Amino acid sequence: MNNNMNMDKTYNPKDIENKIYEEWEKSGAFIAKIDKNKKPFTIVMPPPNITGQLHMGHAMDSLLQDAPIRYHRMKGDPTLWLPGTDHASIATEVKIVEKLALDGVTKEDIGREEFLKKAWEWKEEYGGIINSQQRKLGVSCDWSRERFTMDEGCSKAVTEVFVNLYNKGLIYKGDRMINWCPVCKTALSDAEVEYEEQNSNLWYIKYPSEDGIDGIIVATTRPETMLGDTGVAVNPNDSRYKKFIGKNVILPLMNRPIPVVADDYVDMDFGTGAVKMTPAHDPNDFEIAQRHNLEILRINNDDGSMNENAGEYKGLSAIECRKKVVEDLKKLGLLVKIEDHNHNVGTCYRCSTTV
């Protein structure tokens, strides 16, 4: 032994791990080799989003994939671990918009083509960072086959699958209730909606009967949506409303006759036991409307403002419309009362806007 040799007291990965990984890549150790006489073992890496950098969850996930990949490779099986990244378009758009805002610029200011250029620049920057981080972890994936979800090949594959599904009648157009963010201007899955408790009110509104003698009182947390009401639902076992079932009441402010329907979904003990039906803007109302053939009437534009179906309230924001609707109901003597009410409100997980 050479007594003059000095050894560091602590292990420094920078001195050796980069060199080892470079040698692994140069040797082609991770490149999948097809052998038709053997059963292959393949893992497609769940592609990390290019919205930022990897975190501890990615590190753990990579470990769980790398271990069986190395095991099968050492067994001599044809082994492929396919790496890649995901565009996560809307989430990435939010990040780019935030970056543009720092320069006092909006995506509308620069236009579509320039924004796409910025998006690809973002992909190159953060996709490169992610791949560098993966190499730091020592993952043994086949980088020669790396994919990006917006690659030409992937895009063509998605188009082909969707066209085939459409031709088979498995994809079709139809009205469905969705979660919509008026700021991101995109649909959200239920998993992308975050609920937060908000202090609000219950507004009690009278819907007069057609003869003007009687009427039904409904309670709502969103009075502005009444402009899109196409019915009122009551429980068939509720004795208070049996005489109204099958008849019409008049929708205040719009002066439109709407039917009263009986449905077991209605909770007789909540509010007044009568529920206004706005099928285009409430998922439960939508389901009831399907059962009773109620009209689906959309009253909001994509940005949340009121559209032409809102009549004289067209162009107002939802909040502005709410104030005006409440004022007008008071003038008509149809606002019975207002109560304090705490309830959970769905918000966009990206921008916290009410969906």
Q: At the fourth CATH level, what is the homologous superfamily of the largest domain?
A: Valyl/Leucyl/Isoleucyl-tRNA synthetase, editing domain
CATH topology of the largest domain: Isoleucyl-tRNA Synthetase, domain 2
- Assembly form of the protein: single chain
The total beta strand count reads 13
Question: How much is the radius of gyration in Å?
Answer: 29 Å
Structural class per helix/strand content? Answer: alpha/beta
Q: Which CATH class of the largest domain? A: Alpha Beta
Spans of at least 5 consecutive residues whose pLDDT stays below 50 are: none
- SSE string, helices as H and strands as E: HEHEEHHEHEEEEEEEEHHE
Overall form: elongated
Proportion in helices: 25-40%
Please state roughly what percent of the residues sit in beta strands, choosing from under 5%, 5-15%, 15-25%, 25-35%, 35-45% or over 45%: 15-25%
Q: How many structural domains are formed by the residues?
A: 2
Spatial arrangement of strands, main beta sheet: 10-11-9-12
Instruction: Give the mean pLDDT.
Output: 92
Sheet with most strands: 4 strands, mixed
Assigned CATH architecture of the largest domain = Alpha-Beta Complex
Distance between the termini: 72 Å
> DSSP helix count?
7
